[in-house]
Structure formats: C-alpha cells, structure tokens
Amino acid sequence: MTGAEVPLEGNRSEADTAVSLCSGKNDVEPMTLCAPAIPGESLISQVSRYHVTSGNVTTRDTYDELFQRAPFRLTFWVPPHIASLSVWLKGELVETTHRLLRESTLFPLFKMFNGARFAPSASRESVDEALRRQPKRIVAESGWTRICPLCVIKDSEKYGTAVIRSAHQIPGVSHCHSHGTPLQDWCQKCRCPFERKNDLVLTPWLGCAVCEARLVGDPSQTEAVPDDSRAIGFARFAARLLE
Ligand SMILES: [Zn+2]
Ligand SMILES: [Zn+2]
C-alpha cells in the first residue's frame, strides 16, 4: 500500500475542531463525521455532508483530507479505506472502524447472512486488510445510490439536513420502508444517476450534478399503490435487520 495510510496526526488539531460536535457523545448516539448524528445515515452520506459543510472546493480535496488518497467509491456495501476516519472520530482504531461498519454500512447484514467477520489485530495494516475482504457489490447493484424524496423533506425538517440512508441501499430494496414510496436513483429531470463514478453523492444537498435540479419530494407519493405492497414489506423487513 501507499503512504496514504499514514495516520493524520499532523492535522489532529484541525480534526479536533472540525469534529468536536460530530463524534458520538454517548453509547446511544451513532458516531458520525458531521453534526447532528443521525441514526441510519450511510457513510457516503456522512462524507458527502462533511464535504458540503467543509468549504473544500473539490471532492478530491475532501477525499485527500479525510482519507489521504484520490477519490474512490464509498458506496460499496462495505467501503474500503474507512479506517482513516478513526483519527477524525478520535477513537481507538479497531473499535472506531468496527462502529463505523455497524452503524454506517451494510456490514450487519453480511455478518448475519454471509458470515462476514471483522476481527483484525490492532495494526492499521490488519484493519485495512480486514476491510478489503468485506463484501463489495454485485454488478447489477453497482453505481445506483437510492434516495427517498419524502425522507429528504422529513429529514430536512427533523435534522436540518438531507440524509442518504443505509436501509435504502440494501440489495433488492426498491421502496422506502418509512413512506412506501419508490426510491429514486436518478435525476427526474435529466435522468442522470445520482451516483458518479468514484465520487461523492451530492444531489440531496446541492442538486443534480448535471442539470442542478433539486431533489424535490412529491407529497402525492405518500400513498403506496397496492402492487408495491410486497416490495414495501420487504423494505420494512430489511430495514429492521439493520436496526
Ligand atoms: Zn422515505
Ligand atoms: Zn439532472
């Protein structure tokens, strides 16, 4: 591996300032890069939200700041390289990385159904290797980050920010477990996917990367249509597994 794995000790004071409000304050609140801590928020959401509030000019700047490497895909079921965040979250390497896996990725599902394990030694090399061995994504699931437009509205009201939720990214989930609405994975105006190759997903906060259309919820979508009942039932079942 490269020198990119060197811990971010040099930026420790900046990190302390940047995340002073962001780390979990107790055992109940999830650990997060950005205040407020939001249960069920995915890692791509936390990093994208961090970018939007950081003042960084490019997403490359944010990747370099947080991961000390060029942009890579953070939307894998279990993304690689996230051990770098332990410095920002001010926690012990293995436990902090494990908490990120449990709270911000689909790792709990793969642990439950695929026997995925995360049991590295305390060295950074061992943690990175354990992350590399985690499930990524099947081809058909690749490149599609799903968002519920009604959750964007509700989360903005409740938390003051949109959120990309882990439960919406579970394989096979097509509807929101909270609202029963079909999830969206591309811009309704220009049909450009929300997800861009090896980059953050900024549509919920900044609008479409191509046409700048905002992700706007349609209140008429709150009523689920009968044909969707099985899909909604599966979405609710799957979401409960992550809780
Ligand atoms: Zn929703
Ligand atoms: Zn668009």
What does this structure look like?
It is globular, with a radius of gyration of 17 Å. The chain starts with 11 loop residues before the first helix and ends with a helix. It folds into 2 domains: 3-136, no CATH class; 149-242, no CATH class. The protein is an all-alpha fold and 243 residues long. Helix content is 37%, strand content 0%. It has helices at 12-18, 43-54, 59-67, 85-88, 93-104, 107-114, 124-132, 149-159, 203-206, 229-242. Residues 1-26 have low confidence and may be disordered. The protein is built from 10 helices and no strands. The structure holds zinc ion (2 copies). The site of one zinc ion has 7 residues, from helix 8. One zinc ion (ZN) binds next to loops.
**What is the number of beta strands?**
0
Provide the β-strand percentage band.
under 5%
Distance between the termini: 34 Å
Order of helices and strands: HHHHHHHHHH
SS content category? mainly alpha
Topology at a glance:
Elements lengths: L11 H7 L24 H12 L4 H9 L17 H4 L4 H12 L2 H8 L9 H9 L16 H11 L43 H4 L22 H14 L1
Question: Which key features would you list for this structure?
Answer:
2 domains; binds zinc ion; 10 helices; 243 residues; mainly alpha; disordered N terminus
Give a brief description.
The protein is mainly α and 243 residues long.
